[in-house]
Amino acid sequence: MTVKSVLKWILGILWLPVYLAYDLAVGSLRVGWEILTPGSQISPAFVEVALRCRTDFEISMMANLVSLTPGSLTVAARHDPATVWVHAMYASSHESIVRYVHTIEDHLLRATRPEGVPPRPEDLERDEGGQRR
Amino acid sequence: MNTVELVGDLLMLAGALAFLVGALGMMRLPDLYSRLSGVTISGAFGTALILIGLLLHQPSWPNLLKISLALVIQLATTAVGGSAMARAGYLTGSPQAEATLFDDLAVEEGQELDAEGHPGQSRPDNGS
């Protein structure tokens, strides 16, 4: 472990609450706007997302962080292989939700892993419409 | 009244409005899962704004510690409660909004539900 990676780790720990506050505010305003304006633009979906998290702490943090943001909600979680099922209110496509959850995961892993964040897995099992091949 | 207190007042007012929006969302949104998302506006965003407003009214180091602790615990419990309710709702078959695009859990459920059970029910301690 180099000095640089430790510094990045500390930065990751400090950055996580800032990112969460931003995410919470943006999600609240979006859902709040949806509630206050007439009509319905929501397109909800249940999305299965494979995670890079490994430990119990990482998976439960991940499930909680997703639930914390208005507009997305963890419905189920699995330990091995690590997976969460997310209910998202604005699912324009399968891809967009997977990308959103992986962004949160990036920020989380930057704070929990001193050795750095593994790259995102390609979601090869899906086609454009989000169906299994 | 100084500027800091005024900002505190505004934050608390915004927090109260967030609670109102969350309450309206309970009626406006189409299904259980969206409503739970709406409740998060009150439980997480509204509470956070009110607590920060409170801190600006009485700023001191002990208060910062207490309010940070209250905020962390509140956010954690809101998230855990929301997940638990969503899962209970799903497992008992709460109806989904008609606009729902796809449901990855249902695909899983259509397959065998023998030893493993529902994917949401697996636990770290039951082997597999």
UniProtKB/TrEMBL annotation, chain A:
Q: Which InterPro entries match?
A: Cation_antiport_E
Q: Cite the residue spans of the region called Disordered.
A: 111-133
Q: What is this entry's stated membrane topology? A: Multi-pass membrane protein
Where is the protein localized?
Cell membrane
Q: Secretion signal: which residues?
A: none
- Domain of life of the organism encoding this protein: Bacteria
Entry keyword annotation includes Chaperone: no
Cell membrane as a keyword of this entry, yes or no, is yes
Q: Where is the composition biased (Basic and acidic residues)?
A: 120-133
- Specify where it is mainly localized: membrane
Q: Which UniProt keywords apply?
A: Cell membrane, Membrane, Transmembrane, Transmembrane helix
**Of which family is this protein a member?**
Belongs to the CPA3 antiporters (TC 2.A.63) subunit E family.
User: This chain belongs to which protein, by name?
Assistant: Na+/H+ antiporter subunit E
**Native organism:** Nocardiopsis coralli
UniProtKB/TrEMBL annotation, chain B:
- Show the Pfam families listed in the entry: PhaG_MnhG_YufB (PF03334)
State the source organism's domain of life: Bacteria
- Where does the sequence pass through the membrane? 6-24, 36-55, 67-86
State the signal peptide span: none
**InterPro entries xref list:** PhaG_MnhG_YufB (IPR005133)
Q: Which PANTHER family match?
A: ANTIPORTER SUBUNIT MNHG2-RELATED
Query: Under which name does UniProt file this protein?
Result: Monovalent cation/H(+) antiporter subunit G
